[in-house]
Amino acid sequence: MVEWTDFERATIQSVFEKMDYDDVGPAALSRCLVVYPWTQRYFGNFGNLYNAAAIQGNPMVAAHGKTVLHGLDRAVKNMDDIKATYAELSVLHSEKLRVDPDNFRLLADCLTIVVAARMGADFTADVQGAFQKFLAVVVSSLGRQYH
Amino acid sequence: PGAEKWLTNTFTQTCAVRPSRHSTFTHSTSATGYNMLTKHEKELIAKIWDKMIPVASDIGAECLLRMMTTFPGTKTYFAHLDIRPGSPHLRSHGKKIVLAIAECSKDISSMMVTLAPLQTLHAYKLRIDPCNFKLLCHCILVTLAAHMGDEFNPVAHAAMDKYLSAFAAVLAEKYR
Predict the structure, then answer these.
(1) Is the dihedral angle over the CA atoms A25, A27, A31, A37 positive or is it negative?
(2) Closest in A31, A52, A121 to B146, CB measured
(3) Residue B26 has what pLDDT?
(4) What's the confidence (pLDDT) of residue B36?
(5) Rg (CA), chain A
(6) Residue B34's pLDDT is what?
(7) What is the DSSP letter of A123?
(8) Interface confidence (ipTM) of the complex
(9) Enclosing domain of residue B34
C-alpha cells in the first residue's frame, strides 16, 4: 500500500490538471523514440521513424502518445490502488505486446523531462520528487503481472 | 587502449547507431576512439554548457537538490555537508560538478585524459556507487529542461544524455 503525503496528492492532481494531455503525450512518446531509439522496436507498423523530424511529425506516434497519457489519468484518479488499476494493462503489455518493462521507466523519464520543460521553474525539486514517485508506482504496477 | 575499446564497445551495444540519422554524421578520429557523438552533437553540447558556466552554482545546486529529493538514497553521500536548499555547501559542491562537466564538453574527444584525476578521486576516495551517476545525470537533464524549455528538444536531449552517460562511464573507469 503506497503512502501519499498531502503534498504529494495535491501536487499530482495539480500537475495533471494543468497539463495539456494532447500536447504532452505526443511530446513524451516521440522524445522517447528519439532519445532511446531501441524503443522503436515496438512500433514497426508506425511508418516513418527514420529520424527525429519524422518521429516528431508522425501522426501514429502522436495518436499513441495521447492514448498513453490518457491512460495515465486512471492512476491520477485512483492513487490509492494503482496496482489494481493497471493489472489488466500489465498483462496486456507482458503477454500480448511483449514490452520489456524497463521501457516504462524510459518513457517515464522522458515524460518527466517534457513536464519540466513545460513547467519551468514551477517544476521545483519537491514537485519533481512527488511526480517521479507517482511515475515509479505506475511503472512498478505495469511491470507487476510479468512472470 | 583496452579501456578505450571497452568504452566504444559498451556504447555501441547501448545505443543503436543508424548512419543516416544525422546528415553531418562523421566518425570521430580522436585517440579515444569514442565516436558516439556527431560533430553537430558535440557543438550543441559545448554550446549548452558554455551558457551554464556563469550560473554554475545555481545550476549545480539545483541538480543536486533535485537528485536528493527524488532519490533519497543519494543523501547518504552527503552526511558531511549542509544539504538544505540554498545552502552554500550545496552551491559550492554543485558548482564544482557543473564546471567539470562544462570543461570536459569543450573537448569531448579528450575526455579520458581530462577526467583522469577525477577518475582517481572517485575510485579511491569518494567511492560513490556508480549506479548513482545515472540518477544525477537524469536530474541534470531535468534541470536543463526546466531552464531551457522547448529549446531542450529531443535531439539536444539525446545528445546530452549520450554525453553524460559517457562522462559517468569514464568516471567509474578506475573502480576495479
Answers:
(1) positive
(2) A121
(3) 34
(4) 85
(5) 15
(6) 57
(7) S
(8) 0.87
(9) 2-175
CB A34 within 8 A of CB B154: yes
Chain A, window 1-30: residues with a beta carbon less than 8 angstroms from a chain B beta carbon: 30
Chain B positions touching A50 (Cβ under 8 A) are 18, 20-21
**Reported confidence tier of residue B30, pLDDT bands at 50, 70, 90:** very low
Flag if B158 and A51 touch (Cβ within 8 Å): no
Helical (H) or strand (E) element with B90:
helix B88-105
pLDDT band at A1 (very low <50, low <70, confident <90, very high): confident
CATH, residue B158: 1.10.490.10
Does the pLDDT of residue A108 top 80, yes or no? yes
**Amino acid occupying residue B44:** L
A57–chain B Cβ distance below 8 A for any pair: no
What is the rounded average pLDDT of the residues B52-68?
98
Domains recognised in chain A with CATH numbers: 6-143 (1.10.490.10)
Q: Domains in chain B: how many in total?
A: 1
Tell me, yes or no, if A93 comes closer than 8 A to chain B by beta carbon.
no
